[in-house]
Amino acid sequence: MAAPKVAVVGAGVIGLSTALCIVETYPSCSVTVLSDQFSPNTTSDVAAGMLIPHTYPGTPIHTQKQWFKETFTYLFAISNSAEASEAGIHLVSGWQVFKNTPKEELPFWSDVVLGFRPMSEAELQKFPQHQFGQAFTTLKCDCPPYLLWLEKRLKATGVQMYTRKVADLWELHSEYNVVVNCAGIGAHQLVGDEKLFPVRGQVLKVHAPWVKNFIRVGDGLTYIYPGIHRVTLGGTRERESWSLSPDPGTTKDIFDRCCSLEPSLRGAQDIEVKVGLRPSRQCVRLQKEVLSQGGVKLLVVHNYGHGAGGFSVHRGTAKEAAHLVGECIAALQGSSSRAKL
Ligand code: FAD
């Protein structure tokens, strides 16, 4: 069989990292990325890019932990290399604070991040409205630079990238052997997945270079995440809202909530407002499917539905998707050698 042709649909963090894992694992494949939008116009560009997992209720915790660990290890190595600033990856320390002590004092990811510990009484004095907190160091991706870095690596390995809206995965059957669906919220229309829904998120990106520590309220609704150049202030979680227009009332509310945690933010400048739709599901859809029409088959691997935590687990899910692509290639090679006999 000639070099298998693989199309990856989608150029957010999931599509680009999946394409990279496929070429790294199966260098003889010819991989193409097809997407109607590239950076800076994807949901992944809006994200804060913090490595703090979101919990998927329909996925076993040990699987989620494995995905997070693989992602953390991968990005930690980048943060510790000469590539770190170009890739937009850096370590950041800070606090997660709670009004009341949570039921689960040790989240499943506490031994993956660095130096996880309860906050001291002295640290808690910074947050008079909160009674309990956790201090740790994690990684943050500055999202547009990280996406560009992934694109650059893909181009260097010969991966082609084309702007194309795919109306139906079947339209790719005559050009590709395997199609990988990383369309994010676009999968709602592309494959008619009714279990996938948007959770709208509005954030502010501000200039406040004196803010060096992250601060996150335990429910994940209010957060301050310093990046290399800008600080992300959040946020909102609006289930089933498809609106991409910023709401001025919400902007003021986010700013006020963040200033009550970190009063120095009153001096922040150059406020930009961004909105993104988290591609949410009970569990990430990471599985193979065989499409077939009139006796012709197309092998598909789905990798979408990462909701509020795509950056935190992207490398782990990309590795698993690449493994499924490998199984598809083995099946194709098996059937082509049987056909020759
Ligand atoms: P996307 O980035 O949306 O990419 C989908 C791609 O598919 C796009 O390129 C799109 O153009 C393409 N596409 C769609 N349909 C088609 C089609 N029919 N044909 C061709 N191409 C198509 N996660 C974290 O881990 N940490 C955080 O701190 C964090 N903060 C966030 C803050 C906000 C405000 C939001 C909105 C999200 C945040 N997330 C965070 C979640 C994270 O952004 C998502 O989980 C992640 O970006 C999903 O990536 P994706 O590649 O699946 O989707």
From TrEMBL:
<feature type="binding site">
    <location>
        <position position="223"/>
    </location>
    <ligand>
        <name>D-dopa</name>
    </ligand>
</feature>
<keyword id="KW-0274">FAD</keyword>
<dbReference type="InterPro" id="IPR023209">
    <property type="entry name" value="DAO"/>
</dbReference>
<keyword id="KW-0576">Peroxisome</keyword>
<dbReference type="GO" id="GO:0006533">
    <property type="term" value="P:L-aspartate catabolic process"/>
</dbReference>
<dbReference type="GO" id="GO:0005829">
    <property type="term" value="C:cytosol"/>
</dbReference>
<protein>
    <recommendedName>
        <fullName>D-aspartate oxidase</fullName>
        <ecNumber>1.4.3.1</ecNumber>
    </recommendedName>
</protein>
<dbReference type="InterPro" id="IPR006076">
    <property type="entry name" value="FAD-dep_OxRdtase"/>
</dbReference>
<keyword id="KW-0963">Cytoplasm</keyword>
<dbReference type="GO" id="GO:0071949">
    <property type="term" value="F:FAD binding"/>
</dbReference>
<dbReference type="Pfam" id="PF01266">
    <property type="entry name" value="DAO"/>
</dbReference>
<feature type="domain" description="FAD dependent oxidoreductase">
    <location>
        <begin position="5"/>
        <end position="324"/>
    </location>
</feature>
<feature type="binding site">
    <location>
        <begin position="43"/>
        <end position="44"/>
    </location>
    <ligand>
        <name>FAD</name>
    </ligand>
</feature>
<keyword id="KW-0285">Flavoprotein</keyword>
<keyword id="KW-0732">Signal</keyword>
<feature type="signal peptide">
    <location>
        <begin position="1"/>
        <end position="19"/>
    </location>
</feature>
<feature type="binding site">
    <location>
        <position position="166"/>
    </location>
    <ligand>
        <name>FAD</name>
    </ligand>
</feature>
<comment type="function">
    <text>Selectively catalyzes the oxidative deamination of acidic amino acids. Suppresses the level of D-aspartate in the brain, an amino acid that can act as an agonist for glutamate receptors. Protects the organism from the toxicity of D-amino acids. May also function in the intestine.</text>
</comment>
<dbReference type="InterPro" id="IPR006181">
    <property type="entry name" value="D-amino_acid_oxidase_CS"/>
</dbReference>
<dbReference type="GO" id="GO:0005782">
    <property type="term" value="C:peroxisomal matrix"/>
</dbReference>
<comment type="similarity">
    <text>Belongs to the DAMOX/DASOX family.</text>
</comment>
<keyword id="KW-0560">Oxidoreductase</keyword>
<dbReference type="GO" id="GO:0019478">
    <property type="term" value="P:D-amino acid catabolic process"/>
</dbReference>
<feature type="binding site">
    <location>
        <position position="278"/>
    </location>
    <ligand>
        <name>D-dopa</name>
    </ligand>
</feature>
<dbReference type="GO" id="GO:0008445">
    <property type="term" value="F:D-aspartate oxidase activity"/>
</dbReference>
